[in-house]
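Input:
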Amino acid sequence: MKIINNPILLKDMKTKLRGWRTPVLISCYVLLLTGILLLFFLGNNMLDRYSTSAFDPRLAVDAYNYIIVFQFALLFLIVPAMTATSISGERERQTLELMLVTQTPTHDIIIGKILISVAHSILLLLSSMPVLGMVFFFGGIGIMEIVKLLIFYVLTSFFVASSGVFFSTLFRKSIVAIISTYIFLGLLTFGTFFVLGFRAIIMEYVTHSSIDVTYATYLTSLFPSPVFGFTSFYFDKGDYYSFRYSLWGELASEINSQIAYETSILRFLKPWIANGLFDILASALLIFMSSIMLSPLIRKK
Amino acid sequence: MMLVVENLTKKFKKTMAVDRLCMEIPRGEIYGFVGANGAGKTTTMRIIAGLLAPTSGKVYIDGLNIFRDPLKVKGRIGYMPDFFGVYNDLKVSEYMEFYGGLQGIYGEKCRELTDSLLELVRLTHKRDAYVDTLSRGMKQRLCLARSLIHDPDFLILDEPASGLDPRARVEMKEILKELRTMGKTVLISSHILPELAELCTSIGIIDSGRLVASGSVAEITEKMYQSGLIKIKVAEKEEEAVKILMEMPEVGELSSVAGVIEIKVSGGEETSVRVLKTLVENEIPVVSFHPEECSLEAVFMSLTERSSENENNQ
Ligand SMILES: Nc1ncnc2c1ncn2[C@@H]1O[C@H](COP(=O)(O)OP(=O)(O)OP(=O)(O)O)[C@@H](O)[C@H]1O
Ligand SMILES: [Mg+2]
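Output:
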């Protein structure tokens, strides 16, 4: 497999990094993040009139929570749009066949397209590093947390990219591919919560008593959802923070507290690990299916 | 044999695009693939290039079954489609580098190949131009250079001169002649037969998915003489000449206008000789005797018209 010198990835890096667009976009992005962060700090300090210190470092943790949510939301917006046009776009531009007559196997073409958007989302993440680093500097979050987050972020973008490329191979029209990708990811992200709710209702019906949903139930219902995996990166440092009372904060602290009650081996399968494993396996399957569909001798028109 | 096609058939829902087509191309041959619009040229070539699965039939390139060993075969063929797109954010040299990479050629080797290929297609001066600023003819030549980057033995060129002005067509032809001297085997399609005649060593005529004639250019031309027309001009004794000709069993249709007699004869050159001999023996003053060289176009038309009549009847 051509991972490092994948010609498709190389070509994209060359054309995208040339010119003014990428640097300008990245600068805008960093400015935006910094702006959000500043507003956040200013807003909190102003509300908290009786604060004795000029700046409360615990606020940094809260800000961190907001920033990574924002970062992931962005990933889910950008990566599908980029990848869902990757193969269908080549088809529409009449360049796909020129690729298919070369000795490059179809899975290298698919992987090249995935790597392009993973590289882009890593670039976005790296450019937000100074802002995240600022939060890190104020304390409250360990370096290991950041590393885990990076791994999870890369795995997630790999999976999102694989889904986009899959639908781009499946459908001839880019627009259909984009919509399908969003629907597919939406179902995995939020549809799994319906599965969870449904299971809770059935359990209540069977046992005739209202029971707590255990971590095992959360895990087995929600493992495909990136939101679930993401709950591992929520930091609950007391009730002081506004973030605690967001819907997302509630969910994260509920799941995190349930892990403590879990006695089986499942307690080692933290949300981010479970979801990360799902990302790896699902991506492998999607890449496999995309490669087969892209192969002209297999696809029957 | 560079290419062997056995009973190739491709059916699209109702249309039979390729119908039990068989052909063989020996090494070093330039094979012209001629047919009207919709005859099945592109479909056949796409199957040979490994871009389309046939309904049935076998294709061997250099002895390799293309459906069993697709990647290996792809290393030996260069394909230029009839319609293709380019990436508009790439420069010419980067375009070549990209396809070089896809064929497993990198770095210095790729740059050297790019230089020599750009020289071959006369685009050296456009090395650093963006691909989308090239003219149609230049893009076509660039696409040809792209198909040669991995030095394939066998080239499949689908109407490489389509949409080009006469001057660009001549240029393209010159480049193709150079390919011939490089020892490449080429399968080239066109719907204009004379255009191929001077370039090719063999020609196959396809009609409604079937190969209706195939052979060397000379053989195909020969066929035409056989059903040829002869124009005879006589100084006098026109009526007598007509009478003599009418009696000959070889002579078919006959018309005469002001000393010029046109006859249609069946049979080859010996027939023409016999007709002339008979006239001279009967002391007809023959001014000129001119077996009309049937143009390749006429051959093409006569070979393909039967099936289009059938189509109209259906
Ligand atoms: N993808 C397809 N789906 C359905 N029918 C097709 C498809 N591709 C080709 N055909 C049909 O197959 C027949 C042969 O088409 P093909 O493109 O091979 O002809 P051609 O000889 O290349 O013609 P031209 O000189 O116009 O390029 C046509 O009747 C065409 O309509
Ligand atoms: Mg065609």
